[in-house]
Amino acid sequence: MSIQSINPFNGKILQEFEAHTDAQIEDTLQSAESTYRKWRKTQFNERSSLMHKAAEVLRKNKDRYAQIMTDEMGKTKKEAIAEVEKCALCCDYYADNAEKFLADEPLQIDQGEAYIAYDPIGTVLAIMPWNFPFWQVIRFAAPNLMAGNVGILKHASNVPQCALALEEVFREAGFPKGCFQSLLIPSKKVDNMLGDARIKAATLTGSEGAGSKVAAKAGQELKKTVLELGGSDPFIVLADADIEKAATTAVKARMINCGQSCIAAKRFIVVEEAYEQFMEVFTRKMSALKQGDPNEDDVDYGPMAREDLAEELLEQVQKSVEKGAEIILGGDRPDKEGAFFNATILGNLKSGMPAYEEELFGPVATVFKARDEEEAILIANDSPYGLGGCVWTQDIEKGKRFVRQVESGAVYINKMTASHPALPFGGVKKSGYGRELSHLGIREFVNQKTVWLEK
Q: What is the pTM of this model?
């Protein structure tokens, strides 16, 4: 079986790879296992030095790595460069903080001494998506390698060059070969890998369906998983918000990565008093975005990652319109080569429409007019997803009270939802479970061992 790297801007095959064989999978598993037995004994200062070097490799090669991302999945070059820089930040963050995060934690006990020790568990399988092909991987790899685990990456099949480049990062930094390995394999091979005793845990970022399958198999094997799945994040604008700032940020929040982000704002819920003003600015600025070659500096958004994804999004929009949704802007694909989709705004959404019930993974915004703040909360929570969200108000204390009612893993006030190495990241409901990043992320795949000494 071959795995193709295809440029979504022009449909050209960039490179073709033969999928790894069962024998190569076995070699990879064995290499990970033997490396782990040695790697787990290394000191934090050794791991930290190597992780800082990984950050240096990323920064030194950021233009080349960014170009690979742009060519393979259509991300604009400027966004791709920013992604590589964010990856380097994450490596430095865990290099500087892992020892503190995993230090023995004293426990209060009447007799003797007790503490929690955080020990590595072994090989972690990472099943990663194409939309942020470097960042999603680094935010798994950096904490786990610093914790003393080793990792095997099964990346999305449309970004094989990214997968191999990530392997290169850790190799060039000086990590032992088995610490981080990429396997170019189809999804059907994942089930057997989860069943292998040398895989101790798995993390997946992807669709609800993929997450459900991995969780089911891991559950049979009694292996821990962390799942970061879909999102349909609410962007809530209250009457007292700075409307110009909110609407300007809303465009960026929806269109980052051509709208192909799990934590991109997707549902814009605006209270009635602010609706007209918000929509005037939002629509004007969305319509002014420039679509085109993602390599050009003045282009705001390029193609979607694949032709089939653009067609799937078009079908969701068309079915919603058939059921009564209103096209305020766009709603179609341009008549040109490439997996392009025009920036779109939909209104008059109702339950039963794809645009109401499903995640729209592309440059399509849905807008809702809420009678008041109470209805805004009801609309925000009327979703199977709960990954992120934000609320806009100039009354900060009200904002703090308001966010406690939003059912999601993160809610920001007067700021678009975004991930950062120091902040826990993850969702509730069908957006998954577990946390990545921060001190919580590095503790997901360690043995939280209780030690009690009698004196």
A: 0.97
